Batch of 2 targets.
Target 1
Amino acid sequence: MSGNHAEMKRVLVIGACGQIGTELVLELRRRNGNNSVVAADVKDHCPEALSNGPYRCMDVLDREAVRAFIQNDSFDEVYLLAALLSATAEKNPDLAWRLNMEGLFTILNLAKEGHIGKIFWPSSIAVFGPSTPKTNTPQQTIMEPTTVYGISKQAGERWCEYYFQKYGVDVRSIRYPGLISYTSLPGGGTTDYAVDIFYHAKRENRYTCFLKADTRLPMMYMSDAIRATLELMSAPSDSISVRSSYNLSGCDFTPAELVAAIQKNQPDFEATYAPDFRQSIADTWPGSIDDSVARSDWGWQEAYGVEKMVKVMLENINVQLLT
Ligand code: NAD
Ligand code: SER
């Protein structure tokens, strides 16, 4: 830890126990000091990975409890990550809409009232739909999402821009592609196959993929996503021209291409394909993303391509997490 309390930024991460939150909290604590970053999640107990700093059990749908906590403490930055992801949301549309929207309103309103300095709220490639151009999808284009998750993310983007324009709320956002990591398991998305495959490669040397072999999707290694998030959050306000959400690109590949990349390291690895309901979600999403606006506004540059990501994943995956 460095600095004293008065100088430290106060940061709150809601949805901290998830795939992104776990790594984001650890990096924020590394940069700001362990005690200045509160990890909050609906889970009763703090996971071992986040035990190096404060933990708060918080249901973001309990608006009064969230308001009381934030009003009492005031935070310089709030990262709102709690959401149902695409596949889980299709199974529970009502909860997905409530969770993905109500938490956002609570946090936007607290910022409007002056209790939060800056908000990060993640959007997704799911804001795009079947009528969107699939290749090099531009920042501004046709957006007609056909999933519950995509509809909630698109509505959230509109509200973020609205609160910025109408009330000056400093809210920043990225349309994350599918994120690939080994520290914690993914939470019910369509891109999860690109994480699952590494656990099965390590444990059984074979994998049955729930998407077709030729389904191209935009993806990103987690450390790139965390760095992008923190770069966007520290960019000068006047360099941010997009207050809905930024397109962001790391790499893109199909399951067959990922299998081939794994086989370069593990030649006996085998994959088969048994597409399920997630195929029809993936079919509506872009295959690659044009992120030139993020590059020119705040200097975004990815560090991981497919080969480098595959190597790090195979070296670090811990199959114990599956049990
Ligand atoms: P995740 O499912 O792994 O984690 C979500 C966390 O939110 C979980 O720890 C869960 O316990 C918590 N949570 C659920 N309900 C809650 C509630 N009522 N109150 C407080 N916490 C609650 O999700 P993730 O992959 O870490 O995604 C985080 C955010 O990033 C989401 O908004 C998601 O839509 C977005 N995103 C993720 C990806 C990806 O590939 N992981 C891609 C695009 C966008
Ligand atoms: N990875 C996410 C999902 O598949 C995209 O937002 O749901």
Note: Residues 1-6 have pLDDT under 50 and may be disordered.
Target 2
Amino acid sequence: MTDSADRADFVVVGAGIAGLTAAIRAAEAGCRVVVLNKGPSWCADRAEQSTSTFYAQGGVAVVTGGDPADPGDPADSVDLHLSDTLAAGAGLADAASARPILADGYDAVWGLMAWGAEFDRTADGLLSRTREGGHSVRRIIHAGGDATGAAIQRALGARVTRPADGSQIDVRDEAIATGVVVADGRAVGVRYLRGGVEHAVYAPTILLATGGAGHLYAATTNPAGATADGIALALRAGAHVADLEFIQFHPTMLYLGPGGAARGRRTLISEAVRGEGGRLVDVDGRSVTDGVHPLGDLAPRDVVANAVRAAIVRTGHPCVYLDVTAVRGATGGFESRFPTVTAGLVASGVDPSSGRIPVVPGAHYLCGGVVTDASGATGVPGLLAAGEVARTGLHGGNRLASNSLLEGLVVGRRAAALAVSRRDLPISDGYAGAVSDGSVPRVLDRTVLQDTMTTHVALGRDAAGLGAAAGILDGAPRSAGPLGIRHVEDAALTLTARAVIAAAAARTETRGSHVRLDHPGTAPDAVSHAFRLDGDELVPADLVPGAVAGLVAHR
Ligand code: SIN
């Protein structure tokens, strides 16, 4: 490698919980870390933030693990958390990956607290715990009422900017990754665009922690940056993706009325509102989930979202309502327990004191993603993925509420450990200067893409709609520019939409968050579908052997 090459020990793409946890841990172990952050420089008071982490409301699902100082619910255990996770995952969550992730949760949360994150506590000083859909007990810790993600992002942002041990993290803001440099089958660097200029930075280990894909849809709970960047980067680098058809629709995204169907991020009404007594009712005041599931409004998220969809179809009314009158009584004030939700309602012109919040299902979380092991290793040596972009097997066909921050924390720490162990691997000469790979991506106009996905690939899907969507996506023209963040995002959305449609078409059954209106039954065997890119085609791939081959080569 030439001396002038921009070289680090570890390059992290993304600045949410998984990326910054990995960056901080690796830097504390002495690594030179570069973080490529698509958003602006971190500022806690910015009105719109760029990571989904910041917007996470409910909290972190975590089992205390017998700590006498903080016992939690005595009925809880990692086994029970695992069993809830597997039940929510609709047969596709992988116990072998999920158990160690869940078991490491408490230690990871303590690490986060040591970095300054503060969680809500009871009058006795114990961690407060709430309940969300699919959880058998109250095990979800939270911060600032419903501002858990914001508290975590603040702690991580402060730690990156002012590390306690003098370690240095080189955060490059407004830098969007355009490609992973792969040489001799290994990931050795990242190409990125910053200030209209293309650059490359090289390292033996690259972590994709780019978050989700909510902006595949016209309305989503996700911030503007959730444009599937990491899925596209990984596919183009040769990694496999799986379970992409499982896009989780949150049952309670704020409905803004026929005239208010604005494109982009909409306020989420946390499941914790139902955990504290909120009830879903249709326009006539009838329960939405009665007789649907024994856990009622606290059934797993796919079940509740589908019940909301069914209620909307049955009544012909465009939304259902979250009745929060019981919450107000139980907690001594909806506004103080749920300040983030309250602020979102007020900003959208909805009166929180009315006791009835109009809601619809909204695109919220990508359960599938880049196939990795429980340490974030993909099938491409040197390339890791963690957080929402990754598919570790924890979520299966439907993520259990509040398991995602936990996964980002735990796998972020493990990814850092891998990076530390690989820091001295040489990078051969000859890659520096490989700023562009010269390929011209397919790019569909974003509005057309979002409308296509919203119409044909949302909660309920069928073969005709998926075929129509595939036809529109396959017709996307190739476009070299204008080169900028928007163009890179649109190319990522286009490739990812094609992959989601291919995965949804291949799954001719209803399972988890994938509802096939033309195949309402669930097949006896649960099988994950993986894909890879072959030239411009998405082709079926092996789930396990690809990853295992990569893992062997990682070590
Ligand atoms: C919520 O607070 O309802 C969202 C939490 C999550 O998506 O895990």
Note: The domain at 255-361 is CATH 3.90.700.10 (Flavocytochrome C3; Chain A, domain 1).
